[in-house]
Write the structure tokens for this entry.
Amino acid sequence: MRGATRVKWAVGVTAVALTAAACGSSNDSGGSSSSTGGSGGGIVRASWGDPQNPLEPADTTEVQGGKVLDLIFRGLKKYNPKTAKAENMIASSITSTDSQNFDIKLKSGWTFSNGEPVTSDSFINAWNFDTQLKNSQLNASFFQYIDGYDKVHPDATGAKATATTLSGLTKVSATEFKVRLNQKFALFPDTLGYAAFYPLPQAFFTNRKAWEAKPIGNGPYLISSYAKGSKMQLQKWNGYKGPDPAQNGGVELRVYTDNNTAYTDLQAGNLDLVDDVPVAQLPNVKSDLGNRYINVPAGIIQTIAFPLYSSRWSSANAAKVRQGLSMAIDRKGITQQIFRQTRTPATDWTSPVLGAAGGFKAGLCGDECTFNPTKAKQLIAQGGGLPGGKITISYNADTGSHKEWIDAVCNSINNVLGNNKACVGAPIGTFADFRNRITNKQLNDPFRAGWQMDYPLIQDFLQPQYFTDASSNDSHYSSPTFDKLVNEANAATSSADSVSKFQDAERQLVIDMPAIPLWYQNGSAGFSSNLSNVALNPFSVPVYNEIKVK
């Protein structure tokens, strides 16, 4: 459950500094030119942002780090780059007769890039490490349904672990292991393509620091080098035996703190791929790039989250203020004027890419997500007014064009309240700093959030962000009713029943409004004439391994 907080939408630094960094990258990389005369060995030069944490699979909840993990790792399953369907990758089969006990068999022949074989132990040891309380992995809660999680990772404040391994994991052989869950969870196999479940080599446990400096994975790419704040270079791993080898020689991920600078570099021929077209360029992007501009639906929703741990937002009537703020936002006007058909006003907390059968329900949020200035003003007043008479909305300024829409949202709120100082944006320089402040509970007012799905399930849009103590519950929202309904949804034996229960849980969010749904976000990208076969997957991430360099 990577958070949109995850990453994709962060903030920026100065254009001058970034341009210099980017140009420096291309000049000193030696052999990093994207063009190799069609040999298939060219390098894809792509925009990127530094990840929040070291690239440990269970400690990465944001998109930039997630991009790299998906380049250097493969898991039991992989999500189809066109449909997002979970398909077996390392797993040869995942079977169950009761939706609670699963038998996982591995394909033979898989290895890590250091030659270690990928075995049952690669998963069992990784998952035990990922869940141990002392290891503080952000994605630990993804394993909460595996038997013994409560002993390895007790949730109560001050509690100590009474076990170091998950009792629900049993090795059968080098290529087979069993997983016992603490409740029925029919959709469990579909979650196993997410990075948190990736295997780890013994090299990780032997020398964790050395591994973090240069992670060893089992995917189609190797990390050659990483200079924080500048670039990461990845090269094709020629020893990769999986079905989806790289079609290029490698990927050079260049750090930009201003996506406008990245776009300018793309036009100048200094960059091959941007996967975040800035809003300032949307009016001209089609004329600039023609068929090299991609604008496709993606499993992303943008929200404004509230720090419910703060006394400013924890009073009995604060939910009315949050509901009122939601009704004070003119979503339709903002998406039309700023985002130019790359966003759609949100009326629930999921995404249309799920489809109705998958859990998307247009209009579920109802009046609370509908622009209504009169009712908005009434609710905010009934809730006691804005805390201290004004609010700020924090955002990262290095990527994502957040300033433009945060200013627009505040203008909408200010117009409703008749006070042009009631709401102001609060930029934070880098995405990593922004995320650290959220993780460390240092924000006392709303902040921009968003969610890029990890897998195409309604569960992934709700549980990681709103279940008590979940991995990306940045609001620290806690509702016994919501949690109970989510547990019932996970235990349902049919997809239809599960979806219905999740939607019941979602209706609790309308009442409590821990985060305001804003709009569903398309994936947008632009690429140079040096590239072909460029596409975004349903998660809005470039399918790097399929890109060809001319």
User: Anything to note?
Assistant: The mean pLDDT is 89. DSSP finds 18 helices and 19 strands in the chain.
